[in-house]
């Protein structure tokens, strides 16, 4: 208003916004009631208007503090209520019991103050023999000295937690994958109960394992938020996270959701052979190039350092598993009694070094409806065969074809889906873990090129 100077008539002037209607800046003026100075807000809009704005002072309104290092960067003008004022950064995890190496690592972490001083593996035998003096080692009886020592070494090599370590996303999917894919399911508890069912003979080439999750508990936590730039679910360094507290928080807001689900594991050899067929295809290459454009277009120039547009590319396997998950969700919603918005997915695709092949479809509603058993019952042989056949058959056609079937992201388009639309594959934003991205029917069923299809023939 006063172009960086003080008001000539008042030490604490009162400002008034005069909005004459419309949604453009030229209709909004700011007036000082003390000196009657007047200025239109359009002088603060756009690239040219940013030159008239003061430098950022490093103020955090939600914390009531100023950054002592200062900021000095140019602020941005946003309309009140704009969708990019803030984006929550949330993490969700299933409350699964530890099993195998995870249980041992948890024990080592629990008793690290005692174990961190052990100089070598030979010392473990002595401590076992004198368990009366060292009662901690009674809890390690079912593990060998070699396993315990390896767990101690893993704990020593793990990075220490701190401010920088807190920026990254923890690995929450590995413990879940280990439990669901384990040949020996854990004992049922009030929060977690699994039952392995038979795979119908006609679906032997589609599923390698079927697990009914009769009870699940999902915990969702808010770990921070961002402004202007939406966070990437896999790349924490793509945007700047605003802290929730002045110091490292000891707790964060979280909620619990209880429900049920179905875990489906596909044959590894089926996925591996399919990946070899499509790795040099034009369709997959189009998806990879679109991903690079997508990341480049959304990269924040406020982030220092190098940027690789292909970082965190989920891979062809993820596209196949994710597309199959959406097909099943849309079909399941017609039979289990839940709307598709009440369902959620978790895709276990792993990496090139650690490939995985699982899909979890579960209820995600915060009330008792999520535990009524309507979803679990669909994992029985006869219903599972029926809904799988229906899902794959429906994927072969779309009422938006041929536009949908022929769609691929070509330059300069940066959307991350191929043969997919609201008619055939898209689901609610609360259901999909990747915002209806990485979807393509041609990678599941025969649409145009049969060699691209994971299942060229119906089971």
UniProtKB/TrEMBL annotation:
Q: Which InterPro entries match?
A: DrmB, MZB
* MrfA-like Zn-binding domain location: 324-425
Highest taxon of source:
Bacteria
Q: Which Pfam families match?
A: MZB (PF09369)
Cross-referenced NCBIfam families, in alphabetical order?
DrmB_fam (NF038324)
Q: This chain belongs to which protein, by name? A: MrfA-like Zn-binding domain-containing protein
* Species in which this protein is naturally found: Carbonactinospora thermoautotrophica
């Amino acid at each position: 208003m006063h172009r960086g100077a003080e008001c000539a008539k008042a030490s604490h002037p009162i400002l008034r916004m005069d909005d004459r209607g419309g949604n453009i800046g030229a209709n909004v003026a700011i007036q000082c009631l003390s000196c009657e100075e007047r200025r239109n807000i359009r002088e603060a809009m756009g690239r040219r208007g940013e030159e008239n704005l003061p430098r950022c002072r490093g103020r955090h309104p939600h914390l009531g503090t100023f950054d002592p290092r200062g900021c000095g960067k140019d602020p941005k003008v946003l309309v009140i209520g704009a969708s990019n004022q803030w984006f929550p950064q949330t993490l969700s995890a299933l409350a699964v019991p530890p099993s195998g190496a995870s249980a041992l690592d948890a024990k080592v972490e629990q008793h690290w103050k005692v174990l961190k001083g052990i100089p070598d593996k030979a010392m473990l035998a002595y401590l076992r023999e004198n368990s009366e003096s060292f009662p901690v080692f009674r809890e390690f009886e079912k593990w060998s000295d070699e396993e315990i020592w390896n767990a101690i070494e893993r704990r020593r090599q793990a990075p220490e937690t701190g401010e920088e370590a807190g920026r990254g996303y923890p690995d929450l999917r590995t413990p879940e994958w280990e439990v669901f894919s384990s040949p020996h399911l854990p004992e049922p508890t009030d929060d977690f109960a699994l039952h392995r069912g038979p795979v119908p003979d006609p679906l032997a080439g589609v599923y390698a394992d079927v697990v009914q999750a009769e009870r699940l508990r999902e915990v969702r936590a808010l770990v921070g938020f961002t402004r202007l730039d939406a966070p990437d679910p896999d790349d924490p360094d793509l945007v700047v996270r605003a802290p929730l507290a002045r110091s490292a928080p000891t707790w964060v807001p979280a909620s619990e959701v209880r429900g049920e689900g179905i875990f489906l594991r596909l044959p590894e050899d089926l996925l591996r052979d399919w990946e070899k067929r499509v790795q040099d295809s034009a369709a997959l290459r189009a998806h990879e190039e679109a991903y690079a454009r997508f990341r480049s277009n959304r990269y924040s120039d406020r982030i220092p350092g190098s940027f690789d547009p292909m970082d965190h590319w989920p891979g062809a396997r993820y596209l196949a598993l994710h597309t199959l998950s959406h097909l099943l969700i849309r079909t399941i919603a017609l039979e289990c009694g839940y709307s598709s918005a009440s369902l959620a997915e978790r895709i276990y695709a792993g990496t090139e070094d650690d490939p995985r092949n699982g899909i979890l479809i579960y209820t995600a509603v915060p009330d008792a409806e999520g535990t009524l058993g309507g979803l679990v019952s669909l994992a029985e042989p006869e219903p599972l065969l029926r809904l799988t056949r229906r899902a794959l058959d429906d994927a072969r056609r779309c009422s938006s074809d041929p536009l949908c079937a022929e769609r691929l992201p070509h330059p300069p388009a940066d959307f991350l889906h191929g043969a997919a639309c609201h008619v055939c594959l898209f689901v609610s934003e609360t259901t999909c873990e990747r915002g209806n991205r990485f979807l393509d029917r041609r990678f599941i069923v025969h649409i145009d090129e049969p060699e691209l299809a994971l299942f060229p023939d119906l089971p």
